[in-house]
Amino acid sequence: MHHTTSGRKKIAVIGGGNIGGELAALIARKELADVALLDIPEKEGLCKGKALDLMQNGTLLGWDCTITGTGNWADTAGSSVVIITAGVPRKPGMSRDDLLSINLKIMRSVAENIKTHCPDAFVIVISNPLDAMVYECAKVTGFPKNRVAGMAGVLDSARFQLFLAQEMGVSIKDVKAMVLGGHGDTMVPVTSYCTVNGIPVKQFISPERLASICARTAGGGGEIVKLMGTSAYYAPATAAVVMAESFLSDQKRLVPAAVFCNGEYGITDLYIGLPCVIGKGGVEKVLEITLTEDEKAQLAKSVAAVRELVDASARL
Ligand code: APR
Question: Sign of the C-alpha dihedral, residues 284, 290, 295, 297?
């Protein structure tokens, strides 16, 4: 039998670097979709090589997806989901915001191509500075805002949950916690809703320890950059796959993600991390939850920081 096209869905992964490669590996291992792994023409060989290595890995692991490495946008056509990792990662000492001008240029060209080649896709942005990049992506593609979202909250919450579980010496499976706001130093680990199997963590962790865990969470990306000399990629890839899978399988996961605000929490015309429901309609709902006065103040501060970045982007 000879198959020219598969009946499987397709995910386009833009940027074949560390996160892109891990995304392709994970998507295939879960047999979620075929993958088009795209980079700039100079890096086409890298994408083709990773695709071959991964397909050979699939022979051993026994999955059936097709991964295509490419430098040609035509190969992304028909994708149900596009995940954008294109850009330069943070180097030690560099803040996410330092990346703005470099990655903004890249995002503009990537978004133009998505508009042309994947006009119906659900778009998940990973490139940093996240909140400004996702805003720009929605602006340039002109897609409905519920079809463009940013991956940050799922990752930041995973970091928060890990540190909480370690502090208490309990399984990560029983810890639930969310991080809202911008994907930067001003992110808001929401302590009022952290629980271990429904029990507020405040019954187990002192306010001082909790504050230090929140601070470590906010610096969680930087901690890894300092150790590795580049930014994290395993957990960022998995976090984006959580969102992609919720869309493709209409799971309606309730997750924090960078979503477009149209008055929610008093925020307008901005992408920022809020709890939302992701299903076949993309971001189907943004949930307005009750926050403490302190959390509201932290969110307002984060909104101001993100707005500053978006304003700076508009001038670049
Ligand atoms: N089109 C497609 N790919 C591009 C483009 C473009 N216009 N410009 C750059 N790229 C590619 C690079 O060639 C590189 O292979 O994006 C890839 C990024 O890979 P890495 O440098 O390994 O970076 P990674 O760690 O994967 O992070 C990607 O996600 O978390 C963020 O801050 C991080 O913005 C960075 C992004």
Answer: positive
pLDDT at 256: 98
250: left (phi over 0), alpha (psi -120 to 50) or beta: left
Report yes or no: 154 and 274 within 8 Å, Cβ to Cβ: no
Give dist(CA 80, CA 121) in Å, integer.
5
Burial of 149 (0-12, 13-18, 19+ CB in 10 A): buried
Instruction: Please write the tens of the pLDDT for every residue from 93-132.
Output: 777 667 898 999 999 999 999 999 999 999 999 999 999 9
Ligand 1 centroid to 90 CA: how many Å?
Answer: 10
For ligand 1, the distance from its centroid to the CA atom of residue 92, given in whole angstroms, is: 16
Q: Using 70 as the pLDDT threshold, list the residues of the chain that sit under it.
A: 1-5, 96-97
The residues lining ligand 1, judged by C-beta closer than 6 Å to any ligand atom, are 14-20, 38-40, 43, 85-90, 103, 106, 109-110, 126-128, 230-231, 233, 236
Average pLDDT in the chain: 95
Whole-prediction pTM value? 0.96
> Ligand 1 test: best mutation among 13, 19, 130, most atoms within 8 Å of CB?
19
